[in-house]
Specification:
Layout lengths: L17 E3 L2 E3 L1 H5 L16 E3 L5 E3 L4 H15 L2 H9 L21 H15 L9 H16 L1
Antiparallel strand pairs: 1-2, 3-4
Helix pairs in contact: 2-4
Amino acid sequence: MSSGNVRQDNFEPNSFVRKATKGKMSEDSAENLTVKKRPKPNSKSEDSKPSKTGKTTEVETDPAVLQRRQKQIDYGKNTVGYHNYIKEVPIETRGKEDPKTPDKYTKYSRRSWDAQIKLWRIKLHKYDPNATSKTEDVESIKCEYDYESD
Protein backbone atom coordinates (compact mmCIF):
# COMPACT_ATOMS: atom_id res chain seq x y z
CA MET A 1 0.00 0.00 0.00
CA SER A 2 2.84 2.39 -0.53
CA SER A 3 2.25 5.36 -2.71
CA GLY A 4 4.77 6.58 -5.22
CA ASN A 5 4.56 10.13 -3.80
CA VAL A 6 5.62 9.25 -0.22
CA ARG A 7 9.31 8.77 0.61
CA GLN A 8 9.79 6.27 3.42
CA ASP A 9 13.44 5.30 2.93
CA ASN A 10 15.07 7.57 5.60
CA PHE A 11 12.13 8.31 7.90
CA GLU A 12 12.74 8.16 11.67
CA PRO A 13 9.81 9.34 13.80
CA ASN A 14 11.84 10.82 16.71
CA SER A 15 14.74 12.37 14.83
CA PHE A 16 15.52 16.05 14.77
CA VAL A 17 16.79 15.96 11.20
CA ARG A 18 14.92 18.27 8.91
CA LYS A 19 15.09 18.12 5.17
CA ALA A 20 14.91 21.50 3.55
CA THR A 21 15.10 22.73 0.03
CA LYS A 22 18.54 24.28 0.58
CA GLY A 23 20.15 21.38 2.38
CA LYS A 24 20.01 19.21 5.47
CA MET A 25 20.16 20.24 9.11
CA SER A 26 22.07 17.94 11.43
CA GLU A 27 20.87 16.83 14.86
CA ASP A 28 23.52 19.03 16.54
CA SER A 29 22.32 22.20 14.85
CA ALA A 30 18.69 21.32 15.59
CA GLU A 31 19.39 21.39 19.33
CA ASN A 32 21.04 24.81 19.15
CA LEU A 33 18.22 26.56 17.32
CA THR A 34 17.34 30.03 18.53
CA VAL A 35 14.33 32.03 17.58
CA LYS A 36 15.27 35.29 15.92
CA LYS A 37 12.83 38.13 16.24
CA ARG A 38 12.32 40.37 13.29
CA PRO A 39 13.41 43.92 14.12
CA LYS A 40 10.62 46.48 14.16
CA PRO A 41 10.90 49.21 11.57
CA ASN A 42 11.78 52.63 12.87
CA SER A 43 8.48 54.47 13.23
CA LYS A 44 10.05 57.89 13.64
CA SER A 45 9.53 60.31 10.82
CA GLU A 46 10.07 63.98 10.20
CA ASP A 47 6.30 64.49 10.58
CA SER A 48 6.26 63.68 14.28
CA LYS A 49 6.00 65.75 17.43
CA PRO A 50 6.47 64.80 21.08
CA SER A 51 3.29 64.35 23.05
CA LYS A 52 2.58 64.83 26.76
CA THR A 53 3.53 61.22 27.49
CA GLY A 54 6.92 61.57 25.83
CA LYS A 55 6.00 59.40 22.85
CA THR A 56 6.15 60.82 19.37
CA THR A 57 2.95 61.05 17.37
CA GLU A 58 2.63 61.48 13.66
CA VAL A 59 1.09 64.68 12.36
CA GLU A 60 -1.60 64.76 9.69
CA THR A 61 -0.48 66.96 6.79
CA ASP A 62 -3.00 66.11 4.05
CA PRO A 63 -5.06 69.28 3.49
CA ALA A 64 -8.13 67.34 2.30
CA VAL A 65 -8.14 65.24 5.48
CA LEU A 66 -7.63 68.30 7.70
CA GLN A 67 -10.45 70.14 5.94
CA ARG A 68 -12.82 67.16 6.31
CA ARG A 69 -11.94 66.81 10.01
CA GLN A 70 -12.44 70.52 10.66
CA LYS A 71 -15.87 70.33 9.03
CA GLN A 72 -16.87 67.50 11.37
CA ILE A 73 -15.58 69.43 14.39
CA ASP A 74 -17.48 72.54 13.26
CA TYR A 75 -20.71 70.53 13.04
CA GLY A 76 -20.23 69.37 16.63
CA LYS A 77 -19.36 72.85 17.92
CA ASN A 78 -22.40 74.35 16.21
CA THR A 79 -24.86 72.46 18.43
CA VAL A 80 -26.90 73.66 21.38
CA GLY A 81 -25.40 70.87 23.47
CA TYR A 82 -21.85 72.13 22.87
CA HIS A 83 -22.77 75.70 23.78
CA ASN A 84 -24.49 74.50 26.96
CA TYR A 85 -21.42 72.39 27.78
CA ILE A 86 -18.92 75.25 27.51
CA LYS A 87 -21.20 77.43 29.67
CA GLU A 88 -21.82 74.79 32.37
CA VAL A 89 -18.35 73.24 32.63
CA PRO A 90 -15.33 75.57 32.83
CA ILE A 91 -12.07 74.28 31.35
CA GLU A 92 -10.42 74.04 34.79
CA THR A 93 -13.10 71.69 36.16
CA ARG A 94 -13.37 69.33 33.19
CA GLY A 95 -12.70 65.72 33.98
CA LYS A 96 -11.75 62.61 32.09
CA GLU A 97 -15.36 61.68 31.30
CA ASP A 98 -16.27 65.09 29.88
CA PRO A 99 -16.41 65.53 26.09
CA LYS A 100 -13.06 66.53 24.59
CA THR A 101 -12.74 67.71 21.01
CA PRO A 102 -10.57 65.26 19.04
CA ASP A 103 -7.22 66.62 17.78
CA LYS A 104 -7.48 66.96 14.03
CA TYR A 105 -3.70 67.20 13.59
CA THR A 106 -2.90 63.77 15.04
CA LYS A 107 -2.64 61.05 12.39
CA TYR A 108 -5.47 58.52 12.78
CA SER A 109 -7.03 56.01 10.46
CA ARG A 110 -10.33 57.14 9.03
CA ARG A 111 -12.22 54.55 11.06
CA SER A 112 -10.53 55.66 14.29
CA TRP A 113 -11.24 59.33 13.57
CA ASP A 114 -14.90 58.63 12.79
CA ALA A 115 -15.24 56.67 16.05
CA GLN A 116 -13.72 59.53 18.06
CA ILE A 117 -16.07 62.07 16.47
CA LYS A 118 -19.04 59.79 17.12
CA LEU A 119 -18.16 59.34 20.80
CA TRP A 120 -17.54 63.07 21.21
CA ARG A 121 -20.94 63.91 19.70
CA ILE A 122 -22.67 61.30 21.90
CA LYS A 123 -21.10 62.84 25.02
CA LEU A 124 -22.24 66.30 23.88
CA HIS A 125 -25.86 65.06 23.74
CA LYS A 126 -25.79 64.90 27.54
CA TYR A 127 -25.89 68.72 27.51
CA ASP A 128 -28.75 69.05 25.02
CA PRO A 129 -31.89 70.76 26.36
CA ASN A 130 -34.55 68.24 27.42
CA ALA A 131 -31.99 65.47 27.10
CA THR A 132 -32.94 62.04 28.40
CA SER A 133 -30.51 59.32 29.23
CA LYS A 134 -30.25 56.34 26.93
CA THR A 135 -31.42 53.98 29.67
CA GLU A 136 -34.71 55.89 29.90
CA ASP A 137 -35.09 55.67 26.12
CA VAL A 138 -34.42 51.94 26.16
CA GLU A 139 -36.90 51.41 29.00
CA SER A 140 -39.63 53.33 27.17
CA ILE A 141 -39.06 51.24 24.05
CA LYS A 142 -39.27 48.04 26.09
CA CYS A 143 -42.50 49.22 27.68
CA GLU A 144 -44.05 49.97 24.31
CA TYR A 145 -43.30 46.46 23.10
CA ASP A 146 -44.62 44.94 26.31
CA TYR A 147 -47.97 46.70 25.89
CA GLU A 148 -48.28 45.71 22.25
CA SER A 149 -47.90 42.02 23.03
CA ASP A 150 -50.85 41.99 25.52
